[in-house]
């Protein structure tokens, strides 16, 4: 987002000069961060919060801010980056959603418990599983016990305003806690609205003040400190008590900040947003965007003589217990909408806390009805809000609540709607061609593979059915299917989250003909290793024979879209334990399923949505990760690289991979596949591009078998070596590298490709390297 986009001077109430923009919640979070000019942002892409980092990176490329943007290897890492940066005494920012938030959850109480301020934008989304990327509050409710004050933003204007107030709240000496700003994924994060902003950054800085200098931090050599010590009782309980006191003080501090902000801007945000509650007899309690729908319905009910009102907290940590009890003292019934369930607790978190507030203040007359609604992004319309009000009206009229807790918007299942099998299981005899021969060479210890002509393998059924939702020209499935042609017999596959997973499993359909499992980016290899060991133990006990089940599977984990960033640690652990399975990485050089953010496999200088190109940045600023070499360093039996452009080479390696996975242990393979959408290339050039990547020596084809490296295709020997720039011309994402202003970056990339190629040739020539 350009800081000058859609801006006009406008006269608005308040003491400072303001402008108008027409932007989304994610854009306003980024815009507020830009105006604050944080020192550091650690981040990791996850929908729907990813755009926040993208917008900041775009600004960074143009030189519009000084924030150091650090792409982490996962959300746990991004939280660690932010915590580490905050101990240095500067200002820190982050944004995340859903399972990403849960992955960093372990880090959050560390930061609040050691009292280091920062601001985290939590763009609310459903928590898996099953996987759903749309908006509800299941991630938000996990935040309630982290020790972070939580501000709520119902629409983009509030996202901007709350972000400015959040840093001031976090740094207040009475609080000194990290703060969350929460807003609804896709409802608020992506919908554009008219927003008033501070016209001058100087006014922002005057409002938030300078970073505090009185806090202890890690960068003062005259005052060395121990941060996060081991602490026994009673010191630990005292520390927690002090944190608790700070949390409750945050409410009063927030109220003071909100009044100051209201005076400056004309926008007032009390702890509770109370709409027509002065004389209300029935009410609805809602968080964030749904509250706005309820307000329209309250107006409609008022026109019919029903005294209806809406309560929506602007702050839920600390929970505004006293204010809520006061607001509801004359209300006969209130319906609380929870956009997440607290499973087994007989109510959602907000309903349970609201009931507790009423009890504390002696209110036993107000009836509380609770409904779980809007899960997985299910829309909430005016008719639904009217239904919520009707529940309260009925309870007020009868003095009785028939069902105090229930789900709203679900429907009973019907047997006739049960998913039907569309494809019959593949026949075992069809999966075993008998044409692929693998035998060990006793003199070298290596495997010899005989592969028939490819046309003779076309009768083998595809493991993944047609009809999936991949983009035109996507190289994932042609690459996977070629690899699977070299695998004989039954397989069980586990897919990491990514394009290949998302486009093949849209419930109630599945494109997978064999058993398929999904788990999250970071833990797929550990999950599949557990299944592998279960298989071998049940086989050892003779259970499959007793049940008449097959006892012959090849286990394959498919990963890509940056999965070997966030999933690298568990993959290495799986390799060290040497489970009998294959990890197959499809390398599309980015996080394509979330919109083409940089991953560690993105080559240097390549453009993504978080490695923008501008006067101050020429694409990704550091080199790509060589996952095949990392996995080879774990000393597993077999590692390989391949592409569909060299079909027989990949087929031979697939056959070897299966033999080693069934007989010795873990295999790791990496296949380069094309992504026309995000590489900005023509659909029909997929094989041409990956072939050029091989011939430029950027993606060499080789295998590491029992620790011995063999280059399986040498473009220099074949007289087919091309310059890296000849490969780059085929993709729109790299054309900037061919311009004079990118000469230095291109040279650095060229040099690294050459260094790695020469190193690989040295390993090929010596069995000891």
Automatic annotation (TrEMBL):
Keywords: 4Fe-4S, Electron transport, Iron, Iron-sulfur, Metal-binding, Oxidoreductase, Pyruvate, Transport
Molecular function (Gene Ontology), one example: oxidoreductase activity
InterPro entries: PFOR_II, Pyruvate:ferred/Flavod_OxRd, Pyrv_Fd/Flavodoxin_OxRdtase_N, THDP-binding, TPP_enzyme_TPP-bd, Transketo_C/PFOR_II
Domain Thiamine pyrophosphate enzyme TPP-binding: 554-657
CDD domains to which the protein is assigned, alphabetical: TPP_PYR_PFOR_IOR-alpha_like (cd07034)
Ranges of residues in domain Pyruvate:ferredoxin oxidoreductase core: 280-384
One Pfam assignment: POR_N
Record has Ligase as a keyword: no
Gene3D superfamilies in the cross-refs: 3.40.50.920, 3.40.50.970
Coiled-coil region list: none
Domain of life: Bacteria
Domain Pyruvate flavodoxin/ferredoxin oxidoreductase pyrimidine binding: 32-257
GO BP term, example: response to oxidative stress
Keyword Metal-binding: yes
Family per record: Belongs to the pyruvate:ferredoxin/flavodoxin oxidoreductase family.
Name listed for the protein in its UniProt record: Pyruvate synthase
Source organism: Anaerobacillus alkalidiazotrophicus
